[in-house]
């Protein structure tokens, strides 16, 4: 029986949670698709790779210099298609973008392409925010 690859869409202002997820001992093989732009390019990847015990990231894709819901939408679809071809090596896809992103257009990207529509399922949309005291 075919099982669609679960995708977790995370809108975040900080990478501490993704760092925790990738360093935790849960036994899952997680692909990370990260939308970064400006001065932030490469910062999270460097932090993850230097994580405690050397985080094991099966696949890492950076979509740089553009909003994932408009400028780099085509790159996102291509990245997802490439990951789906290696689905036997993955348990989950984590799609992380800035906390300023609108989740509706991002979720709709998953149904832009016939191959993706049957191969992935949107598992959750999580927004992480800060509370200043």
Key phrases:
133 residues; alpha/beta; Rossmann fold; five-stranded parallel beta sheet; Zinc-reg_GTPase_activator; P-loop_NTPase
Summarize the structure.
With 133 residues, the protein is of the alpha/beta class. Helix content is 30%, strand content 28%.
Q: Order of strands across the widest beta sheet?
A: 3-2-4-1-5
How does the overall form come out from the CA principal axes?
globular
Question: What is the subunit organization of this protein?
Answer: single chain
Secondary-structure class: alpha/beta
The CATH class turns out to be Alpha Beta
Report on this model:
The protein is an alpha/beta fold and 133 residues long. The protein has one domain (5-128): Rossmann fold, CATH 3.40.50. Helices cover 30% and strands 28% of the residues. The chain has 5 helices and 5 strands; from the N terminus they run E-H-E-H-E-H-E-H-H-E. It has helices at residues 16-23, 43-49, 73-84, 103-109, 114-119, and strands at 5-12, 30-36, 59-64, 92-98, 120-128. It has a 5-stranded parallel sheet. Helix 2 links the parallel strand 2 and strand 3 (59-64). The chain starts with a strand and ends in a 5-residue tail after the last strand. The relative contact order is 0.29. Mean pLDDT is 70; it is low at 38-58.
């Amino acid at each position: 029986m075919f099982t669609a690859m679960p995708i977790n869409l995370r809108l975040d202002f900080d990478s501490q949670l993704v760092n925790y997820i990738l360093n935790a001992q849960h036994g899952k093989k997680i692909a990370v698709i990260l939308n970064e732009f400006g001065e932030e390019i490469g910062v999270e990847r460097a932090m993850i790779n230097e994580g405690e015990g050397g985080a094991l990231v099966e696949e890492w894709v950076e979509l740089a210099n553009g909003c994932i819901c408009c400028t780099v939408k085509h790159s996102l679809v291509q990245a997802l298609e490439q990951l789906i071809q290696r689905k036997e090596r993955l348990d989950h896809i984590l799609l992380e973008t800035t906390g300023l992103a609108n989740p509706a257009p991002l979720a709709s990207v998953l149904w832009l392409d016939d191959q993706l529509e049957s191969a992935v399922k949107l598992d959750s949309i999580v927004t992480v925010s800060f509370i200043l005291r």
